[in-house]
């Protein structure tokens, strides 16, 4: 009954789109003879008008046309004549804006633009397709900010722009590295960069949405011309698709740049935002406001926006910022709508909020509720913080550096915390190391239920939250918080460059051999640092830009990342993609403190390697580990990966070099 009422409401609001599951909002319906403007706004609005402009910024309105209420919460007017190339705003006394579903805008997104969007399609766009992806487990996600990636590249023709990702140097780098999905930080029109001053240094990650359905003009070569940003965005997608790389869009529907100036507030005050019981604006986003995904038209907006990016821009996936602010029903409706277009489109998000939301947690897209959201994944802070240390304290180390700071220097089993000869401090350290180890095992298994993972020791989750390993994003760092190199420097006292590299490679070995979907921050393959800045969202280029000279300075780092990704891609045992298969084939081995060891066993017929053993050693000393007796080929040792083999191991013990991974198979 509720769905019928909702459908009826939509048919009243947007009569042309009563069957809107396959169509999008139409605030502006253009023809050469006339343009129809339709707005969702309150019934009691005193005055709603449309203004037509010649330019995207500045100048007086060519005409102002009054809108009339034509249905419940629907206002409409028709402007005769050919408005192609003109700009428009809606105004109901709260300030002018381009509406909530503008598809093209002028500079800084102040006015909507009337264009022929079909003319923005690059040559061959009709034949552009989503690259093949049989399972999310096959994805290797590379998170990128446009400006970070290319602004300091010496041979970039379009530094900091969409078109940089069409250039041969960029395509060659990504292809050689082996990633097959690019997660681009917010690339819709956002508010913190002034597009009229692009010749001046400006920087922001873009988590301050203005127009959700238009590419950001700051990454285009001409933000004044509405068609340019659209065409160049499509050229970027097309270039990546041609080499088999998917494009994932970071979407920030959970909050707006602010409330007062937002298009939501200026068209329907307070409808799109949640409030607390005392009438204050809820702030689950930590940004001063929190959108109400549970409101029918906000839910509709999110669904249609996602579909629009897929249909118009051929986007292959979505990363939901603070997904824990959105209600479960909305996220499932989005998954359902996306499946109707292409079920291989990947959806994942942050399974938390930045503060308390106005809705209870059991209704929200929190990590703990992932079992209620099939086909949607969440980031695992369990594996992240187990490896590098807690988000809340940059100086506290995780499993990677823990044994370097322990009071005890023995290789006593971390589970043997009842040793009467150990001091109270040593026992406490061993208990903490045991928790880190169990949390890492939980991440390696893909956050699913596994008989060898003791959930009472896992750092954040006390029960498995993924039904399938493809619902877990495996990572150690992203744009948010310190990057891996900076975190290691901050948390491992006296770390040398050699040790830094060893621990960096060890961390990523855990990530890329885990059963979740691996995710990395761009530039980590270049040993990237951000000079210790924890939150670089508005830091200058000198902090955020990639240092491409590091590719020559630390060639062993790039080679290891490249070969590690290839190892995962060539051997499906590392990406089983199914919880039952993981429980059947992934077996953790007993190992000393500072060691996590596991075997991918009996996967013959699906993988050329029958048994694979991965041993991760965070100790500063070489450590012996018991393994099932056999004859093995070594493919990873001392920071080098070679699938053809770099030696042999025989028997029931192996020695693992300090702060490194050993991978063998028989």
Give the topology, please.
Blueprint lengths: L1 H12 L14 E3 L3 E7 L8 E5 L9 E4 L1 E4 L2 E7 L6 E5 L20 E2 L27 E4 L1 H5 L17 H10 L3 E4 L3 E3 L18 E7 L10 H17 L3 E6 L11 H5 L28 H18 L3 E4 L7 H14 L4 E4 L27 E3 L1 H8 L10 H7 L18 H21 L27 E3 L9 H8 L5 H16 L4 E5 L19 H4 L5 H4 L1 H16 L8 H7 E4 L5 E6 L11 E6 L5 E15 L2 E2 L6 E9 L3 E6 L1
Parallel strand pairs: 9-10, 9-18, 10-13, 13-14, 14-15, 15-16, 16-17, 17-18
Antiparallel strand pairs: 1-2, 2-6, 3-4, 3-7, 5-6, 7-8, 11-12, 19-20, 20-21, 21-25, 22-23, 22-24, 22-25
Helix pairs in contact: 6-7, 8-10, 11-12, 12-15
Mean of the pLDDT scores?
93
The main sheet comes to: 8 strands, parallel, barrel
Counting helices, strands and paired strands, the structural category is alpha/beta
Supply the number of helical segments.
16
Short description:
The protein is elongated, with a radius of gyration of 26 Å. It is α/β, with parallel strands linked by helices. A hairpin with a 5-residue loop joins strand 19 (586-589) and strand 20.
Question: Please, could you describe this protein's structure?
Answer:
- By secondary structure, the protein is α/β, with parallel strands linked by helices.
- Helices cover 26% and strands 19% of the residues.
- It has 16 helices and 25 strands.
- The protein has an 8-stranded parallel β-barrel. Strands 19, 20, 21, 22, 23, 24 and 25 form a 7-stranded antiparallel sheet that branches. Strands 1-2-6-5 form a 4-stranded antiparallel sheet, with no helix packed on it.
- Helix 11 (484-491) packs across helix 12 (497-512).
- The termini are far apart.
């Amino acid at each position: 009954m509720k769905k019928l009422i909702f459908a009826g409401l939509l048919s009243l609001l947007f009569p042309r789109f009563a069957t809107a599951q396959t169509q999008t909002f139409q605030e502006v319906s253009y023809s050469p003879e006339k343009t129809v403007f339709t707005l969702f706004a309150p019934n009691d609005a005193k005055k709603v008008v449309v203004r037509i402009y010649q330019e995207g910024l500045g100048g007086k309105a060519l005409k102002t046309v009054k809108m009339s209420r034509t249905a419940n919460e629907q206002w409409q007017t028709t402007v005769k004549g050919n408005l192609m190339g003109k700009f428009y705003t809606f105004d109901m006394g709260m300030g002018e804006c381009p509406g909530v579903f503008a598809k093209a805008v002028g500079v800084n997104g102040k006015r909507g633009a009337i264009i022929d969007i079909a003319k923005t399609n690059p040559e061959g766009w009709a034949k552009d397709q989503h690259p093949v992806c049989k399972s999310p487990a096959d994805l290797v996600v590379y998170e990128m900010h446009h400006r970070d990636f290319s602004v300091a590249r010496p041979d970039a023709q379009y530094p900091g722009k969409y078109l940089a990702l069409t250039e041969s140097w960029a395509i060659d780098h990504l292809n050689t590295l082996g990633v097959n999905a690019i997660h681009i930080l917010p690339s819709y029109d956002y508010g913190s960069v002034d597009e009229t001053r692009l010749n001046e240094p400006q920087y922001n990650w873009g988590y301050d949405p203005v127009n959700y359905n238009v590419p950001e003009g700051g990454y285009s070569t001409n933000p004044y011309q509405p068609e340019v940003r659209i065409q160049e965005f499509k050229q970027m997608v097309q270039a990546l698709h041609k080499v088999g790389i998917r494009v994932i869009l970071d979407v920030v529907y959970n909050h707006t740049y602010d409330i007062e100036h937002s298009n939501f507030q200026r068209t329907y005050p307070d409808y799109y935002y949640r409030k607390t019981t005392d009438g204050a604006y809820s702030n689950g986003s930590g940004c001063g406001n929190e959108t109400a995904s549970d409101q029918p038209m906000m839910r509709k907006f999110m669904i249609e926006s996602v579909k629009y990016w897929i249909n118009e821009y051929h986007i292959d996936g979505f990363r939901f910022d603070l997904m824990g602010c959105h209600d479960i029903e909305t996220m499932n409706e989005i998954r359902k709508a996306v499946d109707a277009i292409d079920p291989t489109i990947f959806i994942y998000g942050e399974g938390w909020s930045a503060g308390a939301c106005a809705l209870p947690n059991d209704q929200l897209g929190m990590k703990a509720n992932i079992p209620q959201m099939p086909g949607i994944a969440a980031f695992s802070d369990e594996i992240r913080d187990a490896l590098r240390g807690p988000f809340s304290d940059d100086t506290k180390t995780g499993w990677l550096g823990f044994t370097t700071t322990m009071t005890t220097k023995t290789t006593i089993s971390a589970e043997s915390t009842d040793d009467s000869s150990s001091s109270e401090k040593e026992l406490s350290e061993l208990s903490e190391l045991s928790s880190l180890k169990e949390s890492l095992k939980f991440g390696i298994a893909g956050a699913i239920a596994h008989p060898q993972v003791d959930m009472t020791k896992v750092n954040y989750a006390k029960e498995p939250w993924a039904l399938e390993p493809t619902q877990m994003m495996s990572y150690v760092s992203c744009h948010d918080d310190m990057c891996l190199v900076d975190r290691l420097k901050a948390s491992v006292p006296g770390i040398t460059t050699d040790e830094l590299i060893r621990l960096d490679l060890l961390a990523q070995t855990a990530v890329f051999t885990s059963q979740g979907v691996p995710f990395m921050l761009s530039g980590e393959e270049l040993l990237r640092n951000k000079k210790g800045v924890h939150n670089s969202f508005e830091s200058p280029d000198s902090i955020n830009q990639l240092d491409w000279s590091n590719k020559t300075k630390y060639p062993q780092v790039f080679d290891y990342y490249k070969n590690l990704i290839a190892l995962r891609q060539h051997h499906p045992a590392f990406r089983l993609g199914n919880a039952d298969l993981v429980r059947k084939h992934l077996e953790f081995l007993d190992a000393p403190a500072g060691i996590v060891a596991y075997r991918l066993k009996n996967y013959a017929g699906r993988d050329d390697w029958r048994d694979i053993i991965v041993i991760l050693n965070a100790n500063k000393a070489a450590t012996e580990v018991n393994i099932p007796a056999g004859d093995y080929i070594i493919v990873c040792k001392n920071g080098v990966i070679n699938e053809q083999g770099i030696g042999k191991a025989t028997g029931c013990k192996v020695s693992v070099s300090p702060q490194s991974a050993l991978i063998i198979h028989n």
